[in-house]
Design brief:
By secondary structure, the chain is an alpha+beta fold. 26% of the residues lie in helices and 27% in strands. It has one domain: YgaC/TfoX-N like chaperone (Yope Regulator, Chain: A, 2-Layer Sandwich).
């Protein structure tokens, strides 16, 4: 099941306090970036983020879920209505996110 544009718009609106959040459509789903680094995505209308240590610490009870078959597990963010928490989460994660790979 592909994610809806309406859900993407809702999630991006929740991150509106942050200047550099963007998305890219990919095979019916959406990859999410903060300041040029991938922090998560929207898969089947679920917000999933990379399980970096600070995200695990901020969401100790979060379930690990597969975004799609064959992918690495990601943390399910179930409090998507809490704008303040979402912004804090993504800002805190940035230092631990891998940098964008350089093209050869």
């Amino acid at each position: 099941m592909a994610s809806s544009k309406d859900y993407l718009d809702f999630v991006l609106e929740q991150f509106s306090e942050l200047d550099e959040v963007s998305s890219r459509a990919m095979m019916g789903e959406y990859i999410l970036y903060y300041r040029g680094r991938v922090f998560g995505g929207i898969y089947d209308d679920r917000l999933l983020v990379k399980p970096v240590p600070v995200a695990v610490k901020l969401m100790p009870d979060a379930e690990l879920e597969l975004p799609y078959d064959g992918a690495k597990e990601m943390l399910l963010v179930d409090d998507v209505d809490n704008r303040e928490f979402l912004c804090e989460l993504v800002q805190s994660m940035w230092e631990e996110l891998p940098e964008k790979k350089k093209k050869k």
